[in-house]
Give the backbone structure.
Amino acid sequence: MLIVIALKQLPHCVIVGGRSLPKPLIAGMAPLAPARISDLIGLIYDCAIAPSRWPEALAEICGAVECVSGVILLLDLARSQHRFAHTWGLSPDWAQRYFDHADDFTGFYSRAFSRDICLDGEPLLLSQLMPLVGRHGQRVYDAWTRPQGLSEMMQTVVLRQRRRLAVFGVNRHESAGALTADQLSIMRLLVPHIRRTMTIIDILDVKTIEIATFAATLDTFSAGILIVADEARILHANGSARDMLAKRQPIAAVNGVLSVRDTQARDEVSRAIALARTDEATIGTNGIAVPLRDAGSAVAHVLPLARGELRTRLVPQTAAAVFITQPTDTTPRDVGAVAASFGLTPAEARMLERLAAGATLREAAEALEISANTAKTHIARIFSKTGVSRQTDLIALINRVVPAVHRPRSENGR
């Protein structure tokens, strides 16, 4: 995201977000201690429960990578609107200018943050982006960014859906010098946690979970939400999750412990819950968009709850929240959009749709009335175009790219 910030220079300090930071805090800061990394990650996860905490989290992240401002946006690309926008270190007049040009910027995001330019989760530097986005991007840079004295920006996609895009970015002033490899490493460490938080915020429709009305609030969501303790012991389940447990699909309770049929998915969810309890800073990408393969297109996401001032007050002795999303309609266009983005042929797209609905390769071949050899040829070409080598990785890719509620069901209802 290309942005403008208003900075006032004083001899020995930089004015950021209405307060002055001494220059030693902007340049030459000591490496981050593990305890500070842990605190940062905990603050990021608190934002999943209370998105209004993002400015505080942005301030801490900017301090960690010696940047003067930061922003996180959740964009509705179809409507050129922002579902939310949180910033730190930016002047009020910038915000007004930015929202006055929202239509131009959301169109720019679609191009600048397309998958062929910006890999999900990988920090993209402004210096790398500008040669790739053409004249329009250069005009945006000249009008909005160059006059502000920014030496570099880091942006990364932290949520990519067919109609929605979330972008996180921090901005560095020229007085701080060039970004270092250590600072890029810090960003790469934090990005999976930001991705998880934005996924949960999107599922919760950008709502704040109030502690006083916690149980009633969870019951308003269509996604299944379970609060679990050590070893996936269920402490609380919302209405949608209770329905799933009663049907034993896509999840079940065995002696009060959360269970899923697929062994690989069960192991990944259990591992994520264990890490959430013992050391959420090491959870990484574990527990993000875990495909429950024996349950059609259902997906699980794990949010750590064992730490953090806000999260620990929700339910005593909790380890994590597990969110289960599953399709609610038979709309095939979303998978079609994925097929188009990777240049799949119509035949390959039909195969992809069957696989996304939970069919095995043999079942897909039978439903499409093609031979096993033809089906193998289709999936080999799909693998080549999408950059994966296994069907489980392909389904995981679809789960990351396509909203679970918009994936097609298989004909047998799985």
Summary: The radius of gyration is 22 Å. The longest strand covers residues 150-160. Residues 118 and 124 are 7 Å apart (CA to CA). The chain has a mean pLDDT of 76.
